[in-house]
Amino acid sequence: MSSFKLGVEVVGAHDLVAKDGKGSSNPFVELHFDDQRFRTTSKENDLNPVWNESFYFNISDPNNLIKLPLEAYVYSHNKANNTKTCLGKLRLTGTSFVPYPDAVVMHYPLEKRTIFSHAKGELGLKVFLTDDPSIKLSNPLPAMESFLDTDVGSGYAQTPNFPSSLPKEKTDKRHTFHHLPNANHSQQKQNFTPMPPQQQMNYGVHEMKSEPQAAKVVHMFSGSSSHSQPSDFALKETSPFLGGGRIIGGRVIRGDRPTSTYDLVEQMRYLFVRVVKARDLPSKDLTGSLDPYVEVKVGNYKGITKHYERNQNPEWNQVFAFARETMQSTVLEVVLKDKDLVKDDFVGIVRFDLHEVPMRVPPDSPLAPEWYRLQDKKGEKKKGELMLAVWYGTQADETFPDAWHSDAFAPGDSTSIASAYIRSKVYHSPRLWYVRVNVIEAQDLVPSDKNRFPDVYVKVQIGNQILKTKTVQPRNLNPIWNEEFMFVTSEPFEDHLIFSVEDRVGSNKDETMGKAVVPLNSVEKRADDRVVRTRWYNLEKSLSDAMDGDRAKKDKFHSRLHVCVCLDGGYHVLDESTQYSSDLRPTAKQLWKSSVGVLELGILNADRLQPMKTKDGKGTSDTYCVAKYGHKWVRTRTIVNSLNPKYNEQYTWEVYDPATVLTVGVFDNSQIGDSNGNKDIKIGKVRIRISTLETGRVYTHSYPLLVLHPSGVKKMGELHLAIRFSSTSMLSMMFQYS
C-alpha cells in the first residue's frame, strides 16, 4: 500500500439552499475519492455550517493521481423520514492537488447535481497531499450506501447525530438501502446474496467507449436512473471516418485511404481557381477604355472578382473554392467582362475540362499559374490573356481560409457579400493588465469660493471605468486619501489614466479643481511585490492642458496630486467566469510555464439546427462556429442557407494548464441579407474540460445545443466535434502541476 495520502479538511459552507420547508437545512458533506467515502457530522438548522473536520484518503496508485477526482456532495438530512437531499456538489481534478505547505483554504461554488436541480452557495475545503506515515486513514462509510441517490433512506450508522429506530447490531448487518427495515427484513437477509462493493457503487460516470455499430449515449449529468434525462438531450459518441482514418473507441483505425494533415476532420474536395491578372485586353467602350472583371462559373455557382476602372492590365490575385460534392458540371468557365451601366459586355472566355484538372495535396508546392489566351463564344482566339491556376485540393490547402467559397452562396446567387462576414478567421486577444492606482494626497488646492474649505474627492478614469475616492473630513486644502483602486487595461495601452480632483459644492453639483493625465504606456510594470515609487503630478484646469506636456514649464504655480501607479503583471486578469476559464497564466510572460500539451479541435458539422430566419417562405440559418481557448479565438466560414452545415475545419492550441475549459459556440450570421445592423444570434454553445481528456485519445461526440427558455430547456440542434489532447511530456506536466 502506498504511503501517499490525500488530506481533505472540510472547513464550512456558506449560503446553502433551504430544503426543510422552514427556511433552513441540516447539512453534511460526503467525500469520494479513489473508491473511498467519508462523511462529516450533520449541522442542524444551519445554512452557514462550520465543520473543521479532517479526513485522509489512501492513494492506491500515485502515478495515476492526475486521473483521480475528488468529489464532494453537500446533503441535507431530513430527520422526519431519515432521507437526504442534495444541496450541491463539486468536483476537483487530480491536477489541483498540492503538497501540504502549499495548501490553502479555497471556497468553491457548488454546482447543480442535475440540470433541473437547484444549487447555490460555497463549500470551503483545504485539499493537500502528504506522505506522513504517522497519519492514520479515516474510517470509510459502509460500502452498501449509495451516495448519489437523493431522498433515499439511509441508516447513517457512523453519524451519532442521526437518529435510528434500529438497534446498532441490526444496522451494521443491513444490506439494502431502498427503504427502512420492516418486520420482514430478517427474512430478506437470508435470501440476499451480497454483491462485491465495486459492483454496487454507482459513481454516475459513464465511460465513453465507442461501439462501431451504433452511437453510444452518454448522459450529461449524474443520476441514479437513466430516464431522468431525455435521450434527445444526451451526449452521443460517434465513429466517423476522418482524415486519419475511422475513429473507434477513441482510437484511429487506418484505412485504405491516404491520410491527411487535417486528421480530425472529414476530407472535403474543392476545385480551386486562382485568378491572378490579365494583360493586353482589348478596348470595348467608345472612349477606348475597359472596366474589367472576371466571372468564375461552375454549373449554377458563380464567383465574381472586383472590377477596375480603365485598366487593360488588371491584377486580382483572388482564389475561388467550389465544393466538389455540389458541382453539377464538368466544365469550368472563366469569363472576362467589361463593367457597364446598362449591360456588361463580353470580352473573352477560358474553358477547362474538370476531368483534366490536377490534384494537389500539401505539402506539395503551390501550383504555378499559367497564361491562357482568351476565346470568343465560338472558341476562336481573341486578343488578351488571363493568368490562371486551377487545381483540386482539400481544406488543408493554404489558400482555403482566404478563398471565396461556393457554400457561402446559394446556387444562382451572385450577390456580393463582404468577405469579412463569411470567411474563417483566427483572432488573438490582447494581453490584459491590472492597473493599480493609489491616490495618496493633494497639496495647495485652490477653491473657487475663498470663503469655504472644499469638500474634495478624486475621480479616477480609464476609458469607461470610473472610480471615486471618499471625501476627506475635516475639510482642508491639503487632503489625504490613501485609497487604492484596481483597473483593467489592454495592450497597446491606447487609453490614458485621468485624475480629476472634484469639489462637491452642492447635493448634485461638483466643480472640477484640476486634472492630471498619465499615459499608460509610460507607467512602470512589475511582476512581483516590489515597491513602486510614487510621483507628483501637476493639476491643470482643463483636460487639454493636462495632456500638454509643455504646459508645466509655462506656469510657475500648480496644485499637485500625489499618486502611485503601476501595471501589475503578476496575476491573471479574470476576463472569463472562473469555473469556465480557458487561461490561468499571469500577464507577465516571464512568469509563464512551458506548455504541457497541444489541443486539437475538429469542427465537423451541425445537425438539425433550429431556423433563425426566413428565406423564400422557408426557415433557414446562415451559421458559423466560434471556438475560444486562451488568447486565441477561431471562427469558421459561414455556411449559408443550411440547417445541417458541414464545416470540417481544424484548429490547434497550446495547453499551459489542464484545469481549463474549451468553449465552442454556434451563431447565425445576421450580416447576410437584410441585416439592418443586427447582432449575430447565438444558437448554442458547448464546453469541454481539458482535464477530462485522456492523452492521445480522439473524442468524437455529437453535443446537444441546449438553451434555457422561460418554458424550459430547448434543444437547438447538435454540434459534432472531434477533440484530441496530446501531452508533450507527461513527466513535465506532473512536475509542474502536481
TrEMBL record:
<comment type="similarity">
    <text>Belongs to the MCTP family.</text>
</comment>
<feature type="domain" description="C2">
    <location>
        <begin position="1"/>
        <end position="108"/>
    </location>
</feature>
<dbReference type="InterPro" id="IPR047257">
    <property type="entry name" value="C2B_MCTP_PRT_plant"/>
</dbReference>
<dbReference type="InterPro" id="IPR047258">
    <property type="entry name" value="C2C_MCTP_PRT_plant"/>
</dbReference>
<dbReference type="InterPro" id="IPR047259">
    <property type="entry name" value="QUIRKY-like"/>
</dbReference>
<dbReference type="InterPro" id="IPR035892">
    <property type="entry name" value="C2_domain_sf"/>
</dbReference>
<dbReference type="GO" id="GO:0016020">
    <property type="term" value="C:membrane"/>
</dbReference>
<protein>
    <recommendedName>
        <fullName>C2 domain-containing protein</fullName>
    </recommendedName>
</protein>
<feature type="domain" description="C2">
    <location>
        <begin position="580"/>
        <end position="703"/>
    </location>
</feature>
<dbReference type="InterPro" id="IPR000008">
    <property type="entry name" value="C2_dom"/>
</dbReference>
<keyword id="KW-0472">Membrane</keyword>
<feature type="domain" description="C2">
    <location>
        <begin position="252"/>
        <end position="372"/>
    </location>
</feature>
<feature type="domain" description="C2">
    <location>
        <begin position="411"/>
        <end position="537"/>
    </location>
</feature>
<keyword id="KW-0677">Repeat</keyword>
<keyword id="KW-0106">Calcium</keyword>
<dbReference type="GO" id="GO:0046872">
    <property type="term" value="F:metal ion binding"/>
</dbReference>
<dbReference type="Pfam" id="PF00168">
    <property type="entry name" value="C2"/>
</dbReference>
<keyword id="KW-0812">Transmembrane</keyword>
<keyword id="KW-1133">Transmembrane helix</keyword>
<keyword id="KW-0479">Metal-binding</keyword>
<dbReference type="InterPro" id="IPR047255">
    <property type="entry name" value="C2D_MCTP_PRT_plant"/>
</dbReference>
<comment type="function">
    <text>May function as a signaling molecule by regulating the trafficking of other regulators.</text>
</comment>
